[in-house]
Design a protein that fits this description.
single chain, 2 domains, elongated
């Protein structure tokens, strides 16, 4: 059950959700951890619900002593629940753009707001990651171009995909790097791969970037 929690800067320390959904995966984990750390996770995961008045009575009926005690306990629990709801709602509202706030605020409950965001951004994040993965595969370094700048861009795109929960495997990234280099690097890459085969050692994508960068600088 929710407990009284003071909202503060530490509670609101969650990265702002990008309206395009590029950081949805990281945002989702951050906000869930933050809410969980303050004992309020039931407000978005549905593990508990709003306390229900245990007393059913007709209009004007006089409550017994036991019923009065139960009624007082329920009001105490209800107050704590509503405070928890308000805190979680504010946590979400404070970390999303105004356009998203206007879109989900009508849901009423914290759980409803979270589910609306999740449904929208799971789909949006998937489409963004598909487009970014396609652009990563199409990225090319021009002949005589600076491979250091090129590799930095490739790595940034990989980090963005990781933030969306869709990182390429190291083997895939290795092949993407090879395909992105200009033809003038073909003899060098052939020599590197031949050496790797003789040594029976598979190069990682980081090692490939390092060796090609060294070749460029020489």
């Amino acid at each position: 059950m929710s407990t009284t929690t003071k909202i503060g800067d530490d509670f609101l320390c969650v990265p702002k959700l990008d309206v395009a959904g590029t950081n949805w995966v990281i945002y989702k984990d951050h906000i869930i951890w933050s809410i969980d750390a303050h004992g309020l996770l039931e407000h978005i995961d549905g593990s508990e619900s709003e306390p229900v008045d245990p007393i059913t009575r007709s209009e004007g009926a006089v409550l017994s002593t036991d019923e009065l005690v139960a009624e007082a306990e329920w009001k105490k629990l209800l107050k704590a629940w509503k405070q928890g709801e308000a805190i979680v709602k504010q946590q979400i509202a404070g970390t999303i753009p105004d356009s998203l706030f206007m879109k989900v605020c009508g849901q009423g409950t914290a759980k409803g707001i979270w589910e609306a965001l999740s449904k929208d951004f799971q789909n949006k994040s998937l489409m963004v990651s598909v487009d970014l993965h396609h652009r990563l595969q199409e990225e090319k370094c021009v002949e005589k171009g600076d491979v250091r700048v090129h590799f930095s861009k490739l790595r940034t795109m990989c980090k963005d995909l990781s933030a969306m929960g869709k990182p390429p495997t190291d083997a895939d990234f290795y092949m993407i790097i090879l395909a992105s280099l200009p033809p003038s690097y073909n003899p060098y890459i052939s020599a590197v791969n031949a050496t790797s085969s003789v040594l029976r050692k598979t190069l990682s994508s980081d090692n490939l970037i390092l060796t090609v960068t060294e070749e460029y600088e020489h």
